[in-house]
UniProtKB/TrEMBL annotation:
PROSITE patterns: ADH_SHORT. Pfam families: adh_short. Signal peptide: none annotated. Belongs to the short-chain dehydrogenases/reductases (SDR) family. PANTHER family: 3-OXOACYL-(ACYL-CARRIER-PROTEIN) REDUCTASE (PTHR42879), 3-OXOACYL-[ACYL-CARRIER-PROTEIN] REDUCTASE FABG (PTHR42879:SF2). The keyword Oxidoreductase applies. It comes from the Bacteria. GO terms for biological process: monocarboxylic acid metabolic process; steroid metabolic process. This is SDR family NAD(P)-dependent oxidoreductase.
């Protein structure tokens, strides 16, 4: 895999669609070589990787690697000899009463949304320490800030991501590694297609911007965080059209 040490390399988890796909496109356009992961949709991710290589002239690797599986992450990072940017984007939701949720469903949400940040970060940090620099961006949610009825597990996982971000930023600041998170509002992705048109219209009416956010807007903010002054760390930036 990418062995040119002076070429910036970014790893994006959950990159086959939605926000992750937009992040991959934006970083490729900015000249980053990429390692992209997914848990199930490798043909779709491979198609994206080939398209980005052809369009932007960068090197892009697609890997079937579940971010919630520490063994899979160990295998993935064993093939890397450097890393400049880590974007923890992999995430799933669960909508329903807490009392109807099984232990397995709870663990799946927590592992995918929160534990994955630990699995990747603990392996990325030694690579970043080699250059005494690096950027970690975690994709969070407004529900991690305020909580949502019927989304207790999701809210808990994203609240954990926010605390994880703040604590790790303090730990890594002396090593010139910045850690920040983006707290997303309602973004127009497949994750929200479970809602009816009526429910989406009602939700849209609550948002001062009067529209859903676009994955490309999240991606642009990721790039801005990566390019921001190094003094910017430990921050949870809310991107929600003024909603919360």
């Amino acid at each position: 895999m990418n062995t040119i040490k002076n070429t910036p390399l970014a790893l994006v988890t959950g990159a086959s669609r939605g926000i992750g796909r937009a992040i991959a496109e934006t970083l490729a356009g900015a000249g980053y070589d990429l390692v992209l992961t997914c848990s199930r949709t490798l043909p779709e991710l491979s198609g994206l990787a080939n398209s980005l290589e052809e369009k932007y002239g960068i090197h892009c690797t697609a890997q079937m690697a579940d971010a919630s599986d520490p063994v899979a992450m160990d295998r993935l990072f064993a093939s890397l000899d450097h890393l400049d940017v880590l974007v923890n984007n992999a995430g799933i939701s669960y909508i329903g009463l807490l009392t109807d949720m099984s232990v397995e469903e709870w663990q799946r949400v927590i592992n995918t949304n929160l534990s994955s940040c630990f699995y990747t970060s603990r392996l990325a940090i030694p690579l970043m320490l080699l250059k005494h620099s690096g950027r970690i961006v975690n994709i969070s949610s407004v529900w991690g800030n305020v909580g949502a009825s019927m989304e207790v597990a999701y809210s808990a996982s994203k609240g954990g991501v926010n605390s994880f971000t703040k604590a790790l930023a303090k730990e890594l600041a002396p090593s010139n590694i910045q850690v920040n998170a983006i707290s997303c509002g309602v973004i127009d992705t497949a994750m929200n297609h479970c809602f009816s048109p009526e429910e989406m219209n009602a939700l849209r009416e609550e948002i001062p911007a009067d529209r859903l956010g676009q994955p490309e807007e999240v991606a642009k903010l990721v790039l801005q965080l990566i390019q921001a002054p190094t003094y910017l760390t430990g921050q949870i930036l809310t991107l929600d059209g003024g909603w919360q």
